[in-house]
Design brief:
This protein has 8 helices and 6 strands, in the order E-H-H-H-E-H-H-E-H-E-H-E-H-E. The chain has 188 residues and is an alpha/beta fold. Helix 8 links the parallel strand 5 and strand 6. The relative contact order is 0.22.
Amino acid sequence: MNIDVIDPNKTAMIVVDMQNDFVASGAAMETPAAREIVPKLAEALRICRDAGIKIIYTAHVHRRDGCDMGLFDDLHPPIANRDALVDGTPGVDIYPELAPAVGEHVIKKHRYSGFFGTDLDIILREWGVDTVIVSGTTTENCCHATARDAMFRNYRVVFLSDADSHTMTTQTEDLARCQPPTSTTPRW
């Protein structure tokens, strides 16, 4: 599907997991590629705010006791050891250079998708959104899962190719063959 026109009144930018535990230097789940996109993503957020596009963030978090962990104990040692993504710690806060503005929401999620087990869909529908712009980290996991779940819910999906970070080039290239269209940072 090609998206030729984005109506700011019906569009939301979803910023996926740009948290200290992923972006900050030396963090337990540090993703250097996430830090590299911060300037472009900050620019995209400014453009969206200026255009009146709503912005909503996701934050991947788990309770300290692990009751919402699922298989993440097996997948990621820093999560299993409670060194990262523990709800209520500074690591789960959005990276300061990308911090939400007053009135912008942060959706806590426990899986890769921002839609799974959250109220993201309810909020987007209440806002009248039909198009989502997906940005953040990591493209091959959380951004991809959020974008795919958005499409399954009949949202038009746009990726900002210069405001999404990935850690596995070959996976990302494979995903590109089955992804919605991409664009660079918008100039509305």
